[in-house]
Sequence to fold (348 residues):
Amino acid sequence: MSNAAPTTLTIRQPDDWHLHLRDGEMLKGILPETTRHFARAIIMPNLVPPVLTGADAAAYRDRILAAKPDGSKFQPLMTLYLTEDTDIRDLRAAYEVGLIKAVKLYPAGATTNSASGVKDFTKVKRVLENMAQIGLPLCVHGEVTDPEIDIFDREAAFIDRILDPIRRDVPELKVVMEHITTLVAADYVRTSANLAATITTHHLVINRNHILVGGIKPHYYCLPVAKREEHRLALRRAATSGDASFFLGTDSAPHIDALKEHACGCAGCFTATNTMSILAEVFDQDGALENLERFASLNGPAFYGLPANDTRITLTKGAEVKYPEKIETGAGPVTVFDPAMPLHWSVS
Ligand code: DOR
Ligand code: ZN
Fold:
């Protein structure tokens, strides 16, 4: 039949606009999972200690390049971790030599290794004004940390209390609201200038029931935590729409199993390995395969002012595709995100 859904799809090579690569043995173990499919990634700076200066970013970039599999052309796009003491001259210098592509704002205490984040937002206003002048984007972890605010409401409260005031104060600042999880955030981003959002693979697939029903599933726990089904559906609509405001940032965040399967388990889903297969399945289910390239390969570079990749990948639909359950690293095993559905799209 001529109107059958496509079974192969060739798209420009995707980029990951939000990725945790860690360091040391973990970096060596998990980097090939990203370089297999992705050309570039925005590298999160929440190491211990964090990536605070241009010198820190250069040293971390060199460690990533040294850990790359032979022959890989993967490019890490480095970021600085914003603090109340960020040095504007150092930041501008790191941007001007092309070393950094964004600065990351973590509200202090919001998530993994965010203790050095920002408490008083007035103290970073001059840094943000300088970033707006030079066109350097700010990536934000969009959750308030106020203990009075319910964890499921922290993203919406962040928009009202922090993000909207920052954008009114510094309207020329380019902002990426990272890993959005709510209908409210999707609507806010869609209708705002100089603002885009990354969406993770896992937030397109799971809602909060996946974490909590039938026993607690630590490998589905991440921050911001997955919300109700209506929010997942809003994220699916945003991602599959092709709207230039939304692009892929996996937030693939490896932790060894011993720290996930724990009385106080770490936040993070590790999706680098199977993300492209899952996304193809999701876009296929929603009849939107024609927009997968926009979401994974075109909208991100356009927002960051970079060219799309010249290289391409081909996705092919066929028999069920299996991925390893775990990646063995020198730091310990890391469980690969389980999409809880069969996958049929392989990547080459
Ligand atoms: O789930 C998460 N894990 N969310 C974050 O914001 C940080 C990340 C990590 O570094 O583990
Ligand atoms: Zn993250």
